[in-house]
Amino acid sequence: MIDFKGLEIWFATGSQHLYGREALQKVQEYTEAIVRELALVKQFLVPIIAKPVMTTPDSIRQLCLDANTAGNCRGIIAWMHTFFPAKMWIGGLKNLTKPLLHLHTQFNREIPYATIDMDFMNLNQSSHWRRTEYGESWKLPRAQHRPARSQRRSLHAQ
Fold first, then answer.
1. Most exposed among 56, 91, 107, 147, judged by the fewest C-beta atoms under 10 Å?
2. pTM value?
């Protein structure tokens, strides 16, 4: 039997400074809310740890290098906030040797079509991994990496 004591999965959100400090603070709150919900999913046998929002290629690369050397990190769950420039992940993913799960979901379950505006879009939409450089980077040889699609309030990965 595998001893899961002390092991963890890191949850990393990608965003950018373009949205400003207030928006990034809200994105960190969204990240922590998603992690709390994932903690309720029985299939995760180890804790999921929210990392700070990643906004630069260097921070992402360092996160991936840190994950590689952290004996207790079993892998990374990545979530792309809004239409984050996914190419910023390529350098980190080239170096990542741990498993990666890309959570392909928006934060809100429902889209308020009657009142939607760019402020809502900038805070709540997620990157569509197959349409980005990030999706293309999955063609790189590496450890187990796969996308998961889900509505945030029904976190059963497909």
1. 56
2. 0.80
What confidence tens digit (pLDDT) does each residue in 82-134 have? 666 677 888 888 889 999 888 766 777 777 788 888 777 777 766 555 555 55
Contact at 8 Å (CB) between 55 and 16?
yes
Separation between Cα atoms, residue 40 and residue 153, nearest integer Å = 11
Return the number of other C-beta atoms located less than 10 Å from residue 128's C-beta: 15
> What domains can be seen in the chain, in order of their start residue?
8-149 (3.40.50.10940)
- Rounded Cα gap, residues 73 and 132, in angstroms: 27
Tokens of 23: 């928006």
Q: How far is CA 88 from the centre of its chain?
A: 13
Name the DSSP letter for residue 143: S
Q: How far apart, in whole angstroms, are the C-alpha atoms of residue 128 and residue 119?
A: 18
Phi, psi torsion values for 84, nearest 5 degrees: -55, 140
